[in-house]
Amino acid sequence: QAQLVESGGGSVQAGGSLRLSCAASGNIHSRYCMGWFRQAPGKPREDVARIDTSGTTTYADSVEGRFTISRDNAKNTLYLLMNDLKPEDTAMYYCAAREVCSRYLLDWNYWGRGTQVTVSS
């Protein structure tokens, strides 16, 4: 069955960097739109970045210029490089997939279990 598994989270000081990975399996492949979302305690889940099947990327204003989403189709893996991390980036980060990109959270079909990112000041 389809599965997404995130890795690479951890604790880092403000200004540091982390790279998250999302390994896809099952029927999730290069023709799927992929995205990263995050959820901080007490707040709703929000978009972080997405990449479509042609490689076009979209970022939330809060991470534009600091985060980079990419995909390695040969490895069927999605990445999120996070630079200049800030305390407000602290959240559980989730990988998601859908045949066609969507702006709406509930449209995304497949989700990983998440990986925690904690940024200290």
What key phrases describe this protein's structure?
50% strand; 0% helix; 121 residues; mainly beta
Overview of this structure, please?
This protein is mainly β and 121 residues long. Helix content is 0%, strand content 50%. Strand 4 and strand 5 form a beta hairpin. The protein starts with a strand and ends with a strand. The model has no long low-confidence stretch (mean pLDDT 96).
What is the topology?
Layout: E1 3-7, E2 10-13, E3 18-25, E4 33-39, E5 46-51, E6 57-59, E7 67-72, E8 77-82, E9 91-98, E10 110-111, E11 115-120
Parallel strand pairs: 2-11
Antiparallel strand pairs: 1-3, 3-8, 4-5, 4-9, 5-6, 7-8, 9-10, 9-11
Q: Structural class, judged by helices and strands?
A: mainly beta
Gross morphology: globular
Radius of gyration, Cα only, in angstroms?
A: 13 Å
Query: Would you tell me the overall average pLDDT?
Result: 96
The count of DSSP E runs of length 2 or more, i.e. the number of strands, is 11
Strand content: over 45%
Provide the low-confidence segments as ranges: none
| Secondary structure: helix percent | under 10%
The total of helices stands at 0
Largest sheet: 7 strands, mixed
Distance, first to last CA? 40 Å
Order of helices and strands: EEEEEEEEEEE
